[in-house]
Amino acid sequence: MRGFLGVTVHWIEKEAERIQLKTNLLACNRFKGSHTAERICDQFESICDEYNIKDKLDYIISDNAANMRKAFTVCFPSEQEDDDDEGDHLDDPELWCDLTLEDQQTVDAAMAKKQRLQCFAHTLQLVVGDGLKETKVACPSLSKLSKLSSLLHTSTTFKDVFDSEFGEQKGIPAAVNTRWNSTLRQVKAVLQCDHLKLCAVLEKAAHKELSFTPREWNLLKELVDILKPFGEATDLTQGEKIVTISAVVPSILALNHHLEKLKPQVRFLSGLVGSLQVSLKKRFLGIFINVKMARTQNGITAPFSDPVYLKAAVLDPAFSLFWVEPHVLVNRDIKAEVAQQVKELILQDAAETEQPVPLVDEEEQEDLGEGLFAAYHKRQKKDVGTTPALQLSHYLDIAEGQAALLFWALNMKTLPSLFRVAIRVLAVPASSAPVERVFSHGGLILRPHRAQMTDRLLANLIFCKCNAA
Q1: Exposed, middle or buried by CB within 10 Å (0-12, 13-18, 19+), for 68?
Q2: pTM assigned to the model
Q3: Rounded Cα distance, 418 and 369, in Å
Q4: d(CA 273, CA 431)
Q5: 63: alpha, beta or left, given left = phi > 0 and alpha = psi -120 to 50?
Q6: pLDDT, position 366
Q7: Which among 111, 209, 398, 468 counts the fewest CB atoms within 10 Å?
């Protein structure tokens, strides 16, 4: 129950003939009193002043809610306030009650930043939360599953019976209300058990009321088929030592395509599929507008509309423009227009970052620009198959998140202007997961037998732990 403010910094560093993604913890300081926007902003500015980096920041990634039960505070509201965001009720309401439009403007003025971006992982979590809340048909099955998990964690007698049938390595983890993927893990765990054997175990233990009917069992299987790609997208964008922002656009468009293909196939959860797609388009509206799959709404800055997401996807050779053809659901002419606009955005940035170096003739410059994107198209695109599940791994020839670093390390001299754009764009993390890991370290350090540890000592230990080589 002690509040702390954690701030991490992320950049790409050139080391001889290679480049490396760097992450450091700047501070994890005690935050006493009310968590108002102004006070968060003041403390953040003091941290930036201490390191003299305020004028060097390109983006600030922040969560759009906070969980006080995990004793952490993530600074600043999202790029667009959503007053009717029902997903935030799962978190501490006191932290966000002050975030009026006036407070938001105060933060914006004090920060004077190009852009503040929402945490991708948390926004995707809210999408799934929206879908599950609108799907009442799954509630009885999930309720049984929750009670079964509780029984395994509270009854030694039932645990013994369960272990004797399925083995001690089997288990059903508890779900966390604020983390939808914990529900997915719970469903996957129970589906690994044989249905008939599980019913027999429950009947033997006098808990027949928790047995799943064949319909409920098939419903849980369908739930996994629907949500598994969301888990994959979440995992792909929470890395710390790998490039993650490049996966945002391909993930969202592939998820939308995945849901579109599922519509005629689902038997029990058609409502969930529809609700997920509606929420996905609402919470990631900026991406759909940028790829011409939605219209701009006058007077509204759509979330995830910053062009950094498109540029990152194209600058990562693992994704390039491969996602345009299968997942941008418009006609071919508009697909080509979208691809051309992204190329122009990148080349414009490259021209703006041009350093005073000897110029080559226009023909050579044009060849370099065309050659970069032509090289992407020459790569053999793997067959993504017809499965409705999202298979982002098909885009990757190299370890996830490493393809971009390797590509630009090899091309830093041949494409210097584009290299300068790439290292600034690809350094941006997709989510605020790195700062959440900071608080996980704090939880491991501040154990019950160390309850008298001072705030300063705890902050120093966390700082040393997170910044250890």
Answers
A1: middle
A2: 0.77
A3: 9
A4: 24
A5: beta
A6: 38
A7: 468
Helix (H, G, I), strand (E, B) or coil at 280: helix
Which pair of tokens denotes residue 89?
């009720």
Packing angle, helices 195-204 and 156-166, rounded to 10: 150
d(CA 351, CA 365): 11
Give the angle subtended at the CA of 190 by the CAs of 185 and 196, to the nearest 5°.
165
Average pLDDT over the chain reads: 77
d(CA 268, CA 285): 27
Please state, for a pLDDT cut of 70, what percent of the chain lies above it. 78
Is a pLDDT exceeding 80 seen at residue 238? yes
Residue type, 81: E
Q: How many CA atoms lie within 13 A of 468 on its CB side?
A: 8
CA distance 139 to 132: 9
Rounded to an integer, what distance in angstroms lies between the CA atom of residue 299 and that of residue 306? Answer: 16
11-17 long-range Cβ contacts below 8 angstroms, 24+ apart: 11/427, 12/405, 12/423, 12/424, 12/426, 12/427, 14/412, 14/423, 17/409
Cα 5 from Cα 138, distance rounded (Å): 38
| Average pLDDT for 50-68 | 74
Q: How confident is the model at residue 66 (pLDDT cuts 50, 70, 90)?
A: very low
